[in-house]
Design brief:
- It is a single chain.
- By secondary structure, the protein is mostly helical.
- Helices cover about 70% and strands about 0% of the residues.
- It is built from 9 helices and no strands.
- Helix 7 packs antiparallel against helix 8 (about 155-160).
Length: about 190
């Protein structure tokens, strides 16, 4: 990723290079939206359908949506998903019981719909960002950071294994973590 997530959101508003920008956005957010949809209790095909419907809304809304650093993009995205889920649930209820309009009005908002686990969200988003970022780094740079941070190995042993200096391990770790911080800026609020 060559841009921060905030700039990715801003680029979605621009008419230039929108296909590449949307592809990047879809790569980053499809797994998260799918994860949220599955946690609403949806079966795999229904979760995939909901994610598609959310992207349809996002294609319409994001070009005019203005990023506000004081507000959470993730929170807004979650609300879009939940509202689309509720709308779909209401529509299916009405279609199944057209004669019973009262039942359609009683579609409840379950408490678990808003109880997304923060740790799971963070773990997913960081993991997905790392997956997308990996191609930006040389294999030795990536491995040096991964082994120190994720596998909690000592920089000296990582340096010896990779045939690089201990300083190179620290630099690799710093570069990858700085890039991860840039990528996630504004998304983990």
């Amino acid at each position: 990723m060559n841009t921060t997530s905030v700039s990715l959101l801003e680029r979605l508003r621009q008419p230039v290079d929108t296909e590449a920008t949307w592809m990047r956005f879809v790569q980053l957010y499809t797994p998260l939206l799918y994860y949220w949809a599955r946690h609403l209790g949806l079966a795999t095909p229904d979760a995939a359908d909901l994610v598609q419907e959310v992207f349809t809304v996002l294609v319409q809304k994001l070009p005019t949506w203005a990023y506000d650093p004081a507000k959470s993009f993730r929170g807004w995205l979650r609300i879009v998903l939940i509202n689309k889920w509720r709308e779909t649930k209401r529509r299916r209820t009405v279609e199944a019981n057209a004669a019973n309009l009262v039942q359609a009005a009683e579609v409840a908002e379950p408490d678990h719909a808003l109880a997304f686990d923060e740790a799971d969200y963070r773990r997913h988003l960081v993991g997905r960002a790392l997956e997308l970022m990996r191609v930006e780094f040389q294999p030795a740079t990536w491995q040096a950071c991964w082994q120190c941070v994720v596998l909690d190995r000592a920089p000296a042993s990582v340096a010896a294994e990779l045939g690089i200096t201990v300083n190179a391990v620290y630099l690799a770790k710093s570069r990858v973590l700085r890039r991860l911080h840039q990528e996630l800026r504004g998304l983990l609020d």
